[in-house]
Amino acid sequence: xxxxTAPKSPVTTEQFTNEIKExxxxxxxxTVEQATDADIYVAASLAVRRHLVDSxxxxxxxxxxxxxxxxxxxxxxxxxxxxLRNALLNLGMLxxxxxxxxxxxHDPQLVVDSEYEPGLxxxxxxxxxxxxxxxxxxxxxxxxxxxxxxxxxxFKQEFDAEGKQVExxxxxxxxxxxxxxxxxxRSQKVNFGGQVVEEDGKKVWKPAWSVRAVPxxxxxxxxxxxxxxTLRLWSAKSYDEFDLLTFNKSEYLDAVKPQVEAENISKIxxxxxxTPQGKRLRLEQQYFFVAASIHDAIRVFYPGQDKxxxxxxxxxxxxxxxxxxxxxxxxxLMRVLIDEYGYDWDTAWDIxxxxxxxxxxTLLPEALEVWPARLIGELLPRHLEIINExxxxxxEELKGLTRDKERINRMRIVTEGDDPQVRMAYLATAGGSHxxxxxxxxxxxxxxVTLRDFSDLFPKKFTNVTNGVTPRRFIRLANPxxxxxxxxxxxxxxxxxxxxxxxxxxxxxxxxxxxxxFAEVKHANKVAFANFAKDRYGFEANPDTxxxxxxxxxxxxKRQSLKILALIARYAAIKNGTINVDDVxxxxxxxxxxxxxxxxxxxxTIQLINNVARVVxxxxxxxxxxxxxxxANYNVRLAQHLIPATELDEQISQAGKEASGTGNMKFALxxxxxxxxxxxxxxxxxxxxxxxxxxxxxxxxxxxxxxYEKGYDPAKYYEADPRLKMAIDMISNxxxxxxxxxxxxPLVADWLTKDYFMTLADFTSYADIxxxxxxxxxxxxAWNRKAILNVANTGYFSSDRSIEDYLERIWHTGxxx
Length: 817
Prior knowledge:
Keywords: Carbohydrate metabolism, Glycosyltransferase, Pyridoxal phosphate, Transferase
Family: Belongs to the glycogen phosphorylase family.
Structural class: alpha/beta
Distance between the termini: 33 Å
CATH architecture of the largest domain: 3-Layer(aba) Sandwich
Function: Phosphorylase is an important allosteric enzyme in carbohydrate metabolism. Enzymes from different sources differ in their regulatory mechanisms and in their natural substrates. However, all known phosphorylases share catalytic and structural properties.
Number of strands: 22
CATH topology of the largest domain: Rossmann fold
GO molecular function, one term: 1,4-alpha-oligoglucan phosphorylase activity
Cofactor: pyridoxal 5'-phosphate
Number of helices: 33
CATH superfamily of the largest domain: Glycogen Phosphorylase B
Number of domains: 3
């Protein structure tokens, strides 16, 4: 008998049906008969929102009045995904929703599909932030997620006739959006530009222009906790009045220029920054949301107080800097404390360093933000003064810790020279209590390489918190078939809030009946994805082939190029008879990725993948044996359909380059086997699931570094492996560009002369392990037993566990009483 511990619905089906009718009538002004699926979605969402409001208000009240320190999660991205079903799950209303919608004459799935997914993130960074605020609420920890309400998100990806990525505006707010509550009465003023003057012996910032930061609040319900936290996203508005006189002179653009410039700040995520204007807008965005958030937190925790005692601020809230984007918050809090509240430097610095903590998400130098001091001075002149003073104080502190002048110079927050630069990762490390990496390997490399000087002198600051994902969205909602099977196997659904209970599945991997049911679940998921893909994207996917997936942001270090080269090599081997087509294991390969608009090599790789797919999928010689699909605009919705259907997951980044990954966790939890390098969280996943249940290939971090030092010649590998040579030659000869040898010449030239991420060096190892993978896949019972062991042994990778680690190691707080 299964023990059910899911939340109990606050309403019956009849009551919820009436609530939807009420919203249709009084909030939307339409009858049930007139209502479309989209109308029902809005009405149901508004009804669900009403069920959250009381808990939301209670949580805020208890947070302000209690002694529990809150968490402020500052992040440029929050990739939330669709919200209705997540809220229904956490309220225990999934069944009531389905039944109520059916009673109103609508299909629940079509109603859910009416919700437009907000594109407020680029990938893992934003999805991690979303998982974390879900877990904070589920654990009952008071928290604010602070970010930006981007009007157009990142971008909507399309492919043109040549397979090239085309970026379109993502009009996610084009229709009624029932979840965000705009609160104009709690807006904040954010200043820019101007100059700093001295008045009565004090520094005074005289800004040139200001922007109104208007909060848009989203409720974040916890699973079974009874707590509802807040995601507060800031939207930029102008303070300037509309210039009617100018408008009436038909000078329309001049009349609206102030509004346009202000609102540009919250238009899109990550504006293309290869131009000075783009860099300026990015810095404006970063300061805009952290300045508004810091002032908001003071308002929240010291209501009605003109001059509160901010020495208690670190006891009220701890701010987590999610990568370097919010680091300008450190000099901002210093400015607020010194200029607005009159604290001396030492007191302000003590408050600031106790308030902030920094998560570093990268090992790549180019991803550690560095801002020209000149630009900061133009936009934030007082902040540049404070940053320079922080730098001076820090250098004096270092002189007391080491006599190594070269080390001290390496650790400068502000570089020397004619064009000084502000190193934001260094500012975050100096100005916060803790620095953490996001996987054991990443954290070690952070200490040993990226921030070695800092970790040598401040070892107690550094710790690790391995990333995690929420099982509520990525198993229960994304994979209800597997969720039900897990609950059946364990005899309880408690695993949804205690993922370690998945260990109870280990003996079931040897139970033939359970293995059979698991195989049926996976095949049903493949059929469901094939139907979804045909309906949504128009392509046919054969569920009787292996589903092999690589989905992640398109970057050279993630090595989508390695996957496509190996795929071309397999295609070539079938075509030239090296492999008997009758011996080929049927495989369908899925890619999903967006490239930054200004990232030429990444966009060229996307074009190549799409054109390989065009050639392969239209070749009768490989029909039924090999297919390649690249559905556009990869997002949370697509992930929730594709991940449960995947059997082989690709995590093939160069060792030492991926911080952690969370896709690898989602796939393993959903019963996919991983082929990967010893990089990021792959290392820990392999340890947890067992080396026999993970397909390992490629160089280690030490081997990579050794090859860099010795001198890497990629052409040597091209000549050494005929499969690799054939693949690159096919690309070079125009096999995937209608005979045009120039289309992919930049890719080929890079592979053969630079290949910084050593795709060619790892090719042979990667291509060889495919034989081991296919041999195992032919024994479906053996494959599925290993897949079950992946599910059973990856409970560690819950975002609930990640948050518990943050609470213990960094934030030193806990749930509300």
